[in-house]
Amino acid sequence: MLKVALGQFVVSRSWQDNLATTITLMQQAEAANAHLLVLPEGILARDINDPDLNSKQAQPLDGPFVNSLLNISQTMSLTTIMTIHTPALEGLTYNTLIAIHQGKIVAKYRKLHLYDAFTDKESAKVIAGDQIPPLLDIAGTKIGLMICYDLRFPELARRLVIDGADVLVLPAAWVRGPLKESHWELLLRTRALENTAYMIGVSECGVRNIGCSMVVDPLGVVVTQATEQPSLIFAEVDKKRIAYARNILPVLKNTRFNKPQLT
Question: Who's near 57: CB < 8 A, 6+ residues apart?
Fold first, then answer.
């Protein structure tokens, strides 16, 4: 069994405060013997009244935020996944997912699909990535990596599962709005069911974002779900459940389409 922890919180405008919250969640997940902790998207800084704060507070992967987490993680067995904004050219940033384990960055991925929707325009401040996310092996389980708006593009989830993923992990800052909580649940359950894979979605909570982090099993069943409040919840990934789902619903074998490719 792979034990996963989902830590949702309200990202503040102070990276030092967010660092302290992240360290606390890591320590709590480690104490609970979790193998994996998933945190929200863009956890360096956020201010609803200052939409440029992500760019202004961006740090490189060798900056003080990540270095502090790497130091803390050295004695932990836990792997922690999150995204932060890292500097790019001319004041722009990358929305960068990192996985850290025992003092090292063991995987990284730059967000492919930028949130130019529902009146937002992420591409005004962020440069899109151009690489398929790597797979991460945690306790013998293959993990596929995605970020927030990626959830609305079934090609990426299917590509990761064809590549070998049994679990799809999605840090997010899912913005509030009409029907947005329904979109969140519907899309997480759909990506899980159509790929017979576990889906782990962790969203920031607070005034701007919905929270409602959840784990969905390979047959689309919600295993655990957080509320709209800051919380740390746990679930187990059962490889027998994956095998069962793929046996009775062999969509990965029955598909008539080739592996999705990045344009």
Answer: 13, 15, 44, 45, 85
pLDDT of res. 62: 97
- The answer for residues whose C-beta is within 8 angstroms of residue 122's C-beta and 6 or more apart is 95, 114, 115, 116, 149
Tokens 């790497």 found at: 70
Which superfamily does CATH assign the domain made up of 2-254 to?
Carbon-nitrogen hydrolase (3.60.110.10)
- What phi and psi values does residue 185 have, to the nearest 5 degrees? -65, -45
Identified catalytic residue from 41, 108, 125, 212: 41
- Residue 107 token pair: 């995987």
Please count the CA atoms within 13 angstroms of the CA of 193 that sit on its side-chain side.
10
Predicted TM-score of the model (pTM)? 0.97
Sign for the CA dihedral angle at 40, 162, 138, 227 comes to positive
Q: Check 122, 125, 148, 212 and give the catalytic one.
A: 148
Please report where in the chains the tokens 């060798």 appear, as a residue.
62
Active site residue 205: no
Is 155 noted as a catalytic residue in this protein? no
Find out whether 67 and 54 touch, Cβ atoms under 8 Å.
Answer: no
pLDDT tens, position by position, 37-57: 999 999 999 998 888 888 889
